[in-house]
Automatic annotation (TrEMBL):
InterPro entries: LarA-like, LarA-like_C, LarA-like_N, LarA_C, Ni_dep_LarA
Any Pfam family: Lar_N
NCBIfam families noted in UniProt: Ni_dep_LarA (NF033504)
Domain LarA-like N-terminal: 13-212
Domain of life, per lineage: Bacteria
Residue intervals of the Lactate racemase C-terminal domain: 281-426
Protein name: Transcriptional regulator
Signal peptide: none
Entry's Gene Ontology molecular function annotations: lactate racemase activity
The organism of origin for this protein: uncultured Thermomicrobiales bacterium
Record PANTHER family: LAR_N DOMAIN-CONTAINING PROTEIN, LARA-LIKE N-TERMINAL DOMAIN-CONTAINING PROTEIN
Amino acid sequence: MSDGVAGTFAVPFGDGTIRFTLPAGLRGAVATGHPPAPLADASASADAAVATPLGAPRLRELARGKRRVCIAVTDATRACPDHVLVPPMLAELQAAGVPDDAITILVAVGTHRASTDKEKQDKLGAETAERYRVVDHDAADDAGLVRVTEGPGGIPFRLNRIVAEADLLLSTGLVEPHQYAGYSGGGKTIAIGCADEATIAYTHGPAMLDRPGTRLARLDGNPFQEAVRRVARAARLAFVGNAVLDENGRAVAISYGASEAVQDHLASVAGPFFTARIPAQVDIAVAGVGAPKDANLYQASRAASYLQFAPTPVVRRGGVVIVPAACPEGAGEGAGERRFFAAMSEAGDPAAIIERVRRDGIRPGEQRAYIMALVLADVSVVVAGIEDPEVARSVGFLPAGNIEESLVTAAAIVGTPASVLVVPHALQTLPIVENALPGEAV
């Protein structure tokens, strides 16, 4: 943790950066991780890594004789460099004699909206998007879903038919702290991104999220992660390509191989430099997001919940989290995003949302309403620079025209003097409160 340079702070906003100073009565510091230097040539590193996989034979060996290959890739809400990770996989498949028409690239959108043609090209590269069959998962298409295993109480866990019927299943992913899975990557692209609504609802329901092991930066003993791995095994996920990015979106590590081996390895690499120690809880936090997560409020709100679901909440009870995000898509356009907005705007105050979800359960997307209701029960959330202020008001957040206005609002709520922690990349930096008081942990 460090003080702002000459009192000036900076956080991402869309594809750019906004700079600001603190008004009188506020004292600030910055929390950042300390990733290693980025890979000099990410594509060359990916080519080398795919030839030396972890815990699995080389992909060209796995691919010999296969005629139905599926590569599940992340959607536009993830900054995963699929344009770097996928080509080495395709080269291995080509070396094994797999024809182009035997390969389907499936965009694992979960319950988010379908991806556009431009997003497919941006994620995969124009050449790959044009050469291969690229389709979106649809969690509501009953005919396109197949049971792969049983969940609690006999609930079927169903995945996309292309996934279930592939004779070789591959995926990409990004390994970074994840509020439910501990770390993303591994089998999550398959188990969540290609699942039906019931599977997503179970893994994101209050019975799962209320369990103490379902926490950021925790793989061992994490029931969410255990469910993800169970589904991925049942789907016969054979090989993954995962990356770790620094705060500027540059790859610092890339690995290929068996799903769990790759995730475990990259989590052990990433964990130390995603952590930033702070001496105590603060009154106000500025939680940076940036593109692509700040496209809508569903995704951008993760910044607030990541800070408050750290091992000890970063902001003390009664404090304020400021999220700078324009949210040009409003609350979000997918089915899950629309459900989040409805649950937050129709159910009443945070206590009412929490009570309803624990009583009635959730549909996919409503878990974000539940999590944010838990956050709002303790702190206020201000969205700085949101294009449609009414969207923020409707879900119980406070809109502000810019970050300076949001800081004035926050100071009025907590009083002065007050402490401010600026976390430029709140989805990648896990602040650890060193002097936590008994009972502060969520």
